[in-house]
């Protein structure tokens, strides 16, 4: 479990993280979402003691990260897969990390297997593809068999197979009861991966809820309808108090209603319909809506209102 309380980081004029408070629970995959520059990496660095908060605290399994005698056994992290000595082989890189952290060398072979690095472990890292570097970075994170795992944008640049593999790995790690925090700016990816979402924008908390709740909470109902009598239909629907907008000469968009309701009304009015559908809001739309709010920065609005 990770507990973030009042976490704030200022770099000169830039308020990178602004009074963030949230929990990351064990046994779940928690997606940490926000547009570029939202403060995700800075928050993760502070969780790992790599950056000192201006104010506030982060506790990992009840303690500050810096208080752990063997931190790699407590927390594994994938931050920047490029930050490795590329002249070494993958296996050597892992062996050095194991040795300097008091981890038995048998774990090296175990994690090489676990991430499917296979024979590539014998090759020098400089010849690795991005996907292989990512697997090596994840192997390093798993080395100490930690209860808490942080992955900063692990999906970036991966092909479909790689994405699927990471998704399954995150699920497995959470099912084993570990705490899994994974950052991304791709809402659509998190929809399939995360149980909970912590969404931030400009360093501030925007939403902290289950993925399903965030979708439901934002799920603005919308109906599209086409008719040969759009003018008549538009005025009649408005008379019924619905918010209606014309999107094409013969197509209307109705907010806050359902296809069943609009269909029944049209039938009662004797207006023939050529098309009628409910429009599902995608997570991507929900995300844009959530974060565009943070860009506008409405004063006085509490952080979790949007999701609840
Ligand atoms: N060492 C630093 N010095 C000055 N400003 C910094 C530093 N690190 C981050 N920032 C600034 O803090 C803000 C948050 O950056 P951060 O990298 O944490 O965001 P992010 O959500 O991880 O974005 P991305 O998805 O682009 O990685 C940005 O405005 C960034 O420019």
From TrEMBL:
Residues in ABC transporter domain copies: 2-227
Entry keyword annotation includes Nucleotide-binding: yes
Keywords: ATP-binding, Nucleotide-binding, Transport
Domain of life: Bacteria
Single GO term (MF): ATP binding
CDD domains hit by this protein: ABC_BcrA_bacitracin_resist
Pfam family, one: ABC_tran
SUPFAM superfamilies for this protein: P-loop containing nucleoside triphosphate hydrolases (SSF52540)
Key word Transport present: yes
Protein family membership: Belongs to the ABC transporter superfamily.
PANTHER family assigned: ABC TRANSPORTER, ATP-BINDING PROTEIN (PTHR43335)
Protein name as it appears in the record: ABC transporter ATP-binding protein
Species this protein is from: Kribbella deserti
